[in-house]
Structures are given as C-alpha cells and as structure tokens.
Amino acid sequence: MQIAGSRKLKSVCLVECELTGLTVVNSGGWEKGLGGVKLAKYAFSVIPTFGPGILTFGLFTFVFSTILGWSYYSEDAVEYLFGLKAVRLYRYLWVVCVMIGSLASLEMVWTFADIANALMAVPNLISLIALTPVVVAETRRYLG
User: Fold this and answer.
1) What does pLDDT average to in each consecutive run of 10 residues of the chain (144 residues)?
2) Quick one: 86 exposed, middle or buried, by C-beta within 10 A (0-12, 13-18, 19+)?
3) DSSP 56-112
4) Can you give the residue ranges of every domain in the chain?
C-alpha cells in the first residue's frame, strides 16, 4: 500500500529542514550558544517582518507532515502484523493519541516518543544481530 503523496511528503520535509538549517546558520544564533526552540525562534526573528510568520507556517507544515508520515508508517506496520481489519481500530486509536498529545505536557510527549522509538529500535537491533550471518553469506555470494 502506497500513499499517493508520500514522495511529496518526504520532499516537503527535506525542503523545510534545509531552509531551517540555512536560516539558523546564517542568523549566527548557534554562535551565541542557543539551542533547540530558542535557536529556531532567534534565527527567524532576524528576518524582518516575515520571520515569525515563516516560522509559524514552517512549524505547522512540519508538524502536520510528521504526523501524516508516522501515521502512514505505523498503519502499514499494523496492517502487516494484524491484518487489514485492525487498521480501522488503529486509526481511531491514532486520532485519540494525537488529541491527547496535543493536550499533554511537552515533557510527557517527548518521554512517550522516546519510549515508542526504543520499542521500535530494540526488535530491529535484535533482528539485525540475528541476521548477521545471512547478510555475510549473501554479501559473499554477491561479491564472490
């Protein structure tokens, strides 16, 4: 299953990140020891008149595209693991979680995101270690 605009979504994220990075570097805020939100806010406040609006629009589109991207990836995983019937329940659960996340404290959201990423990383790392002999054998077969 492929979302029609998933390639465009990745392109939007790439352009947003690149423009933000260029703005941050050109503002010189990083030389002042600023980081994170303070750095981004400072970088865009250097742009007269339009800076705060650009930052607001950029954050909105980045947040929206991130929510769509994670939704797509996790929906695909739910479909693979539990079948097509589980997708509808997952979508309802996703909407509830997004709503709760928008109302929760920032610290709680980041803690949950870290836990969720760890829960995805651990099985993948175990699988990589377990499949190392297969990768070595296939690499030797390909190169040999």
Assistant:
1) 57 76 84 83 86 86 83 90 94 93 91 90 92 94 90
2) middle
3) HHHHHHHHHHHHHHHHHHHHHHHHHHH-THHHHHHHHHHHHHHHHHHHS-HHHHHHH
4) 1-103, 105-144
